[in-house]
Amino acid sequence: MSIGNNDPSFATAVAEAPQQDTTPFTGSDMTLGQKIESKTAVVGVVGLGYVGLPLGRAFCEAGLRTIGFDVDPQKIEDIEANRSYLKHMGDDYVLKMNETNKFEATTDFSRMGEVDAILVCVPTPLGQHLEPDLSYVEKTTEAIAKTLRKGQLVVLESTTFPSTTRGVMQPVLESTGLKCGEDFYLAYSPEREDPGRKSHNTQTIPKLVGATGPEGCDLAVALYRHAISDIIPVASAEVAEAAKLLENIYRAVNIALVNEMKVVLEAMGINIWDVVDAASTKPFGFQAFYPGPGLGGHCIPIDPFYLTWKAHEVGQPTKFIELAGQVNHAMPDYVVSRVTLALNGVEKAVKGSRILVLGLAYKPDVDDVRESPSFELIERLEGLGAEVDYHDPHVPKTHKMRRHDLQRESIAWSEQALAAYDCVLISTHHAWYDWQFVADNAKLIVDTRGVMRDVYGDTQHIVRA
Fold it and tell me: Can you give the pLDDT at residue 399?
């Protein structure tokens, strides 16, 4: 969900982008469709985060000149220096992108008049009361309007509630006097990135495209087909917006189900991971989902609330979705209770105990910490008086986030360090970790990921959570 720069200053910086004071760029006499077909169309990507940077690379590798826009000058500096700030992409990711000689990055939003297609990949987080925060989309749309010209295509990729593209963006763009479907075109194509996944990438993940009119859909489909192997046009922007929400709500609901099963089965002395493995042997009618310490990432913890909010606006309940949210958001408290019981079992109180959290990222083998439940675990345990450190091979130090600012670094890894803690809490199951090493050196382990099932030797000090 948080696709671009998640700093609250992002919206302000975009809004303050200077008004272009030159004659609007008109390009050649070719139509937009002809430019797309001939690959002479210039693509602009707004927001160079986990979605925008790979998308920009996909287009420049396809041979289209691409301009990336971001308010963070550090990202621009990194790109120009061939440094990859998305570590899971690899050290040479940006280098190979720049070697195409088709990509450039800038903080100058007045240059959006130069591009033929503007792909918006900015954050859509939640507000304090779980309400949609469209400020990034709104400010970006206002910046686009400043340089909007005839023959441009605008595509929103940020996850949002149905009607955002047509109801929020279109009126702002049409306030320029240009008419959607005649002078410019507007579409929605949801991002489907999954950081760290090896089986698919931006170019191979099937891409949905919906628009506010048939010509906009045709143009967006033609554009994306240059960079992405499988494009699926749908009936409207609203269908594409709702499909993205359904994808992630499906996952959120099923994760809530298995999290609830975990709590129930643990009370019965049954290992949930063994149960999921057993159920997974059925060749149809079942898809495995696994429990954890809570939801993390840019989509699943956030997206369901976009539909819930919109449903309430039209007077419809979303009981199933809200219940799933309640179950998933309760998991950090459940884990903390398991830590408390585990420490009680060795005659120690949480207050004054030294606890090490393994894994700060929200999923294995990436450095992405957005909405990670590890932050909730650390803050809850510290609130009970524990002294908490973390280790994560992919996150050497923390940075300020919307809701958290731990201001600390990952500890140095050693058997002496592990042995010094009263409890080791496994939150993220990075492949980097040698779980047998952890089992052999930690005094007490609370395992939220089922990774200690295969260790040998004495396991009396391992507790499931």
Answer: 82
- CA distances (Å), 259 to each of 128, 262, 277, 326, 376, in order? 25, 5, 15, 11, 17
The dihedral through the CA atoms of 443, 446, 451, 456 has a sign that is positive
Domain boundaries, the chain: 9-239, 269-298+330-464
* Close Cβ partners of 371 (under 8 Å, ≥ 6 residues apart): 2, 295, 296, 297, 298, 301, 302, 362
Which letter does DSSP use for residue 276 in this model?
H
The backbone torsions φ and ψ at residue 302, rounded to the nearest 5 degrees and listed phi first, read -115, -45
Regarding beta strands 207-211 and 184-188, do their DSSP bridges make them parallel or antiparallel, or are they unpaired? Answer: antiparallel
Report the candidate in 160, 301, 439 with the shortest Cα–Cα distance to residue 447. Answer: 439
Fill in the amino acid letter for 256: A
HSE at residue 107, side-chain half, CA atoms within 13 A, is 15
Task: Report whether 180 contacts 152 (CB < 8 A).
Answer: no
Nearest in space to 355 (alpha carbons), one of 335, 371, 330: 335
The confidence score (pLDDT) of residue 16 equals 54
Burial (CB count <10 Å: 0-12, 13-18, 19+), residue 287 = exposed
pLDDT over 70 (residue 247)? yes
- CATH 3.10.520.10 corresponds to the domain 9-239: no
Rounded distance, CA 298 to CA 295, Å?
10
CA 273 to chain centre: 26
The terminus-to-terminus CA distance of the chain in angstroms comes to 27
Contact (CB, 8 A) for 425 and 396: no
What fold characterizes domain 269-298+330-464?
Answer: Rossmann fold (3.40.50)
Question: pLDDT tens for residues 115-137?
Answer: 999 999 999 988 877 788 999 99
* Contact present, 63 and 226 (Cβ < 8 Å): yes
Which residues are identified as catalytic? 299
DSSP state of 423: E
Ramachandran bin of 66, using left for φ above 0, alpha for ψ from -120 to 50, beta for the remaining angles: beta
Please give the full DSSP string across 124-150, using - where no structure is assigned: --B-TTS-B--HHHHHHHHHHHHH--T
Go through the chain and tell me how many residues it has: 465
pTM: 0.88
- The helix (H) or strand (E) run that includes residue 240 is helix 237-267
Q: Say whether 26 sits in a helix, a strand or coil.
A: coil
